[in-house]
Amino acid sequence: MVQERAFPTFQTAPAQVTRAEGLMLYQDMVLGRFFEDKCAEMYYRGKMFGFVHLYNGQEAVSTGVIRAMRPGEDYVCSTYRDHVHALSCGVPAREVMAELFGKATGCSKGRGGSMHLFSEPHRLLGGFAFIGEGIPVATGAAFQSKYRREVMGDENADQVTAAFFGDGTTNNGQFFECLNMAALWKLPILFVVENNKWAIGMAHDRATSQPEIYKKASVFGMPGYEVDGMDVLAVRGIAQEAVARARAGEGPTLIECLTYRFRGHSLADPDELRSKAEKEAWLARDPIKKFSAYLTEQNLADQPELKAIEKTIQSVVEDAVQFAIDSPEPDPSELYKYIFAED
Ligand SMILES: Cc1ncc(C[n+]2csc(CCOP(=O)(O)OP(=O)(O)O)c2C)c(N)n1
Ligand SMILES: [Mg+2]
Q: What is the largest CA-CA distance in the chain?
């Protein structure tokens, strides 16, 4: 059994939220969870093809970071585990579901599928099948913001970029090269590690010489934080600080979110390698249950209100499925369309 990393004492007090912010964060996490549960159902009913990687358990990271940014203006770069990042960015559930069904109405016009979600209006730079592939893309996006602002004099070019990737990916070269460049050029970027302890069936502690990933920031002279990735307010607090620093021209931040995926690596993974005890310990930290309890304890919402949100989201997800079913397949005569930007 993999030894459990001691849960650290986190540096920041939880961010204070208003009732409206709290409900917005709750809604976003519930959307991520319900959408993914529905994906599993549709996958096993043969509606989706290829690999489908779900995000259940990690919702506080997507919501905590992306909802601390300016959706539609700031850039987000994801991985193959990208559906929930897309939803937090504001890509409509209909367009994400249709993409997973390979339909022409999908956000990537049915050309991408699960691992290649993309949305120009929502500044979603992509899901990427290769691990680490998005890190240089995100670094480039951050570079262009800074270049437009400082070299071309565009004062509106103050966008921040967030690059999401897993623990396993931090052993790849792109991670180190991009951290170096981002620190050197003080790029406006958040490197967000979703440390869910596993890279498919490889335990993080067995694959890396220094399992505390946030410490790797220090060799680049960059701030590095570890945060409870099951606590949306803790993630949000750290993300807000990092976004403010990036926007002020003070450069990048590495944020290591300690989290866990509640399902197997992909829907094709029987998930037999992780121990029952480990899974149960992390299930008890479910970020949605934790935040629901917080909202009611703080009198920001009551149970019927939260149930009403869940009901609304359930219908959003059902509607997305119906939309995907009713949508047309891409037209084979348009196979070469959308290969170049001018299309
Ligand atoms: C360059 C490259 N090498 C290997 C793979 C095969 N692969 C797919 S997922 C994965 C593990 C990644 O784990 P992690 O970064 O922790 O992300 P998680 O799946 O846990 O979110 C690997 C090695 C790949 N997709 N790309
Ligand atoms: Mg991982």
A: 58
Q: Residue 311 CB: number of other CB atoms within 10 A?
A: 10
Nearest atom, ligand 1, residue 53 CA: 19
Nearest CA to ligand 1 atom 8: 131
Whether 166 lines ligand 1, by a CB cut-off of 6 Å, is: yes
CATH number at residue 24: 3.40.50.970
Enter the pTM of the model.
Answer: 0.96
Pairing of strands 253-258, 224-228: parallel
* Atom 11 of ligand 1, residue of closest alpha carbon: 199
Residue 95 resides in a domain: yes
Ligand 1 neighbourhood includes 135 CB (under 6 angstroms): no
**Averaged pLDDT, groups of 10, the chain, 343 residues long:** 65 75 98 98 93 97 98 97 98 98 97 97 98 98 98 97 98 98 98 98 96 97 96 96 98 98 96 96 96 95 97 98 98 91 76
What is the rounded CA–CA span in Å between residue 64 and residue 257?
Answer: 10
> Domain residues for 106?
19-327
Kindly state whether residue 82 falls inside one of the protein's structural domains: yes
In this structure, the residue with its CA closest to atom 24 of ligand 1 is: 130
